[in-house]
Amino acid sequence: MDRRWLAVVLLAACHPNPPSIGAPGGPKLHDADDPDGPHRDAIAAQIKPFLDADIASGLVVGIYDNGRREIYGFGNGPNSKRPDGRTIYELGSVTKVYTSLLFADAIQRREVELDTRLSALLPPGVTAPTKDNVDITLAHLALHSSGLPRLPPTIANAPTSTDPYAKYGEDALYADLVHTPLAVTPGETIAYSNFGAGVLGFVLGKKLAPTGGFGKALTDRVLVPLALTDTHLKIPAADLGRRAVGTEDDLLAVPSWTFDALAGAGALVSTARDQLTLIDAELDAAIGGDGPLRRAMKLSQEPRLENPSSNEGLGWQIDATGRYWHNGGTGGFHAFVGFDPKTRRGVVILASTASSLVDRLADTVYGVLDGTAKPPPKLALAGDLAAYAGTYELEGEKLAIVAAGNRLYIEGRGEPKHRLVPVSDHEFWIEALQAVAIFERDETKLKVARMVFLVGDHQFSANRVPAAE
User: In whole angstroms, what is the distance from residue 225 CA to residue 239 CA?
Assistant: First the structure.
């Protein structure tokens, strides 16, 4: 398979979040869970273009505003009904917030320390990698500074799977630890690692709940004390009817993800109601509350880096404004959970589509809360797409842009088609490539002349081939 055109675009495609262009937008609105919520109409107006453009099959927005909670569901949920505050979604990497909270609680109980060496929690015969005579500590795992790769080799080198973590068990984890060299010295570089976060949850589970592992430790020490009754590693049979069906960026249904040894990296499922309950507890901890796990939460909120702007705690990312947040994605879902201790506000967005564009809605919702939200964006819809269809040439490779109904696709030699999801009337997001495609017109402003790819700090231009050729 020749993937040359894709290789060109993927050269810098390691950007963790979509670049800021214009806010995105999507299909049909429904009434809110809280019909009297003061922010209902403003949120609905922002979500409407997001649905009209088929960006998400369904999503729930939860708002926390100084103790008041509002929950609004949009699009399709279980049984073709609108989702609500009790609809169950996969959280993906938001799970890391909970794994780190379990870690912080164990520190408070003096069962482990920040600088406890990973090797001290491994069984005889299993060694943890080191570099420059520096050991990996539990804090390194929580802060993504361990030097471990993003994925363990067993998963990274496996064929593409619709459920990549399902059969990754204890033996595979130990083998990968023993045989994985570190690219950098622990503690020197921040590099996001699902492998490291999963290892943290696994070894904590072994220590804190030897007979039940991570699942039992997390349930007994975090989920039950916080009364998070709809947050699980595995959905109880009685609640399966409330589970949303996950979809990929073309809104086709995909299987749910399951986890084994790396559950601490992304296994949790939950509801908007439970995530607002978490935010309530986190905000209480920020002002010195004494409820369950508040001291551990306060510890997890402490900035750990020396950066003057963005920072991170144990599990939480901290942006330049001081807001705490984490996002997460699986094969069919995307989630965002965040809160602002200064304003005592929080935002939860749970979507049943694996699109990182969901993250953009967070700033929009915060803007609704503080009255600074921009008008809903104008996105390219079915009638706009034909203007962009055609053949483009990128460094000798021919790319086809195809309009089909309400959607636009890019196709190239040796590579399956990818959807171009609108983020404005002429800009599109390519989820698989983590890239933006911008269509530019010629001097007359009447004809589309080229397509420009933005991938991180890199830019590639593909000129449109005249139809007569």
Answer: 21
The vertex-240 CA angle with 236 and 241, nearest 5°, equals 145
Please, which contacts does 236-240 make with residues 24 or more away whose CB atoms are closer than 8 Å?
A: 239/88
**How is domain 4-20+380-464 classified at the CATH fold level?**
Lipocalin (2.40.128)
| pLDDT number for residue 468 | 63
Asked if 61 and 43 count as a contact pair (C-beta separation under 8 A), the reply is yes
Residue at token pair 């809104």: 251
> Tokens for 44?
């609905």
Q: What is the pLDDT of residue 192?
A: 95
**Would you state the pLDDT for residue 403?**
96
The pTM for the full model equals 0.91
Provide the residue ranges of all domains of the chain, joining segments of one domain with +.
4-20+380-464, 89-370
CATH of domain 89-370: 3.40.710.10
Instruction: Please give the torsion angle defined by the CA atoms of residues 461, 354, 41 and 272, in that order, rounded to the nearest 10 degrees.
Output: -150
Q: Crossing angle, helix 170-179 and helix 194-208, to 10 degrees?
A: 120
Measure the CA–CA gap between 366 and 347, rounded to whole angstroms.
Answer: 7
Q: What is the rounded distance in angstroms from the CA atom of residue 337 to the CA atom of residue 426?
A: 29
Check residue 33 and give its pLDDT.
Answer: 57
Enumerate the β-bridge partners of residue 348.
Answer: 62, 337
Q: Is 327 helix (H, G, I), strand (E, B) or coil?
A: strand
Pick out the chain residues at pLDDT < 70. 1-36, 308, 468-469
